[in-house]
## 1
Amino acid sequence: MSLTNKQNNLIYKYIKMSDLLSILIPVRDEKENVYIISSEIEKKIENSNYEIVFINDFSEDSTSEELIKLSESNKKIIHFDNKKKGLGGAIDLGIQKSKGKYVCIMMSDSSDTVEDLNYYYKEISIGNFDAVFGSRFIKGGKVVDYPKIKLILNRLGNLLAKLLIWTDLNDFTNGFKIYKKETLINLYPLVSESFNIFFELPLKTITRGFKYKIVPISYYNRTVGEAKFKIDELGSKYIFTLLYCFLEKILLKTKVK
């Protein structure tokens, strides 16, 4: 029997007061954006029980100092210095340090919206999913100012992953997704060192048999700071991650659900 909207809202209202949400944000040289994203979350988030976990990935500007100031002024903000340089190490450390039942990975450049974060949390908590994946390329999704070359390569890479893994997800590479923390722990060991970590997590979630849902989200290209994504440096790493997860699926048949 399906629940009515009123019943869902009552369940959500209860969940909002009980389950901690960890918002994991890796940063490198984002001294301005750490303030922007923290403020956006504080103003727009619906769940009052949350923490923001910043992982400083070897910043060379004043990001570290700004994070100290932020955490001193807002007890919901904590930060840690990455020990293994790269996004893979930053996400790994953030997962370990997060205390929430749910962990949402967001980027610091405001490409992801807090409205979508609220939607994620509602879907994963009410639906009892192991993960909720956003897609910018399904009905209701939106992309604003996405570089054309990057977009073409993105669609080709995601299509290849979709065909190899044989799944309905068409936006693996977007890092903005939400998971139960126990789901993330069950994806270990993590092998990716860079942006390909955002490929590895959903690939393993699917191939290891976890329950997930796909929802439309919006993406806005950054307006402050410099993008860290380098297409020419990351192609081989994405291919490695895809083949690694594909071989795991075929040879090991790893299922945890």
## 2
Amino acid sequence: MKKIVLSLFIFSLITVLPGFSLRALNEKYEMVLNVPAKKLVLYNNQAQAVKEYPVGVGKSLTPTPLGEFKIVRRIHKPSWVNPYRQSKVIPAGEMNPIGKYWLGFAMNRKNQEYGFHATNDLNSVGQASTHGCIRMYPEDMKELFSLVTVGTPVHVIYNPVEVKEFENRLFLRAYPDIYGYMTDEEYLKFAKNQLSGANLITEPILDKVIASKDGKDYFVGWTGAERLNEQETGPVEKGKLN
């Protein structure tokens, strides 16, 4: 499968990213949204991961589209159109469920726009809970809005297998296949591709992690002499915008 152009930057097990200075609207960023992980990572123009946000993504019946996009619309104090009742428009203000900021990145054939926005349902962040848009905590959305501009690249990938490194040890994490896009054999292929060059324990360990799909880190081996492969983009063709 096609791999993302960005190099894989493996995060340590601690959740705090390096203390890079975030600059508002004067530095170019790229956004990588991994749907199964329900996670958005912001990269700076040196391809360094500078910020990570938990997000809510589309439900299985209304999936978030996959592929290469750009921020096309940036609105402060947006109105909201109820997806079930197109005639019902909620103006900007305290009653607006999407908050004060909107970053649109894709439009389907029905002229429905997908975007990043805040939510008043905080429990929906970290869940497959939307009609395809990306929900964020209000404070995270405010920060993201201050950092990215129209034209910022948005890579929406579907990689349910992540590799993490800590003190030369490698850990594998598998997320549920929320859209039913992949088989366990494809999970295993993803894991092997991303761990190529590593000193693994045994393949059955990989099978165990993939069978769990619980989003937890499992020790699978040690770093080798070769650099790990790039992050997989996943079955993008199954989730193309239509």
## 3
Amino acid sequence: MQARDWTAIENEYVTGKISLQKLSEKYEIPLRTIKDRSRKGEWSQKKKEFCANTAQKAIQKIMKKEAARLEKLKGVAEELADIISRDVEQLKEQHGKSKMLTESDVKMIKELTVALKNIADVMRDVYGLPTIREKVLLEKHKEWRKSIKEAEKVTGGVIFLPEVLEVVEDADHLDATAETD
């Protein structure tokens, strides 16, 4: 009978996706023997810890990549802001001399407006900031949840909805009715 490398078998179980049953078949070891070794050596706990550590390392790697991406976006946004600042100064100088906006000035102003919007979008993405619309929706959602909780307190967890008198399936009908009233 050859000596078994229990450390290698344990490592294969802990670091792999193989079951105790498959290990038993692979190494021609009785399942009961493998299960006993596993229980005594706490292989299941070691496998859980290994999986948790591996997941944590993967998360850290992803976070580093995401941080680098966000830093790059921030750099691009700052460069764009510098370019816009220079263009605004140039526009001020030209406007100060002629006192009239040319077609190219109007075009530049439009382009700067779009660029500023893009910078704002990038910075919101970088810093995870909500838009004004998102803020309003979040506030309305909070108010709605608060009113639901208050209604649940008053009614003991049951919320009574108003009775629907008529279901209108055609939205165009509503518009036509509203216009004739």
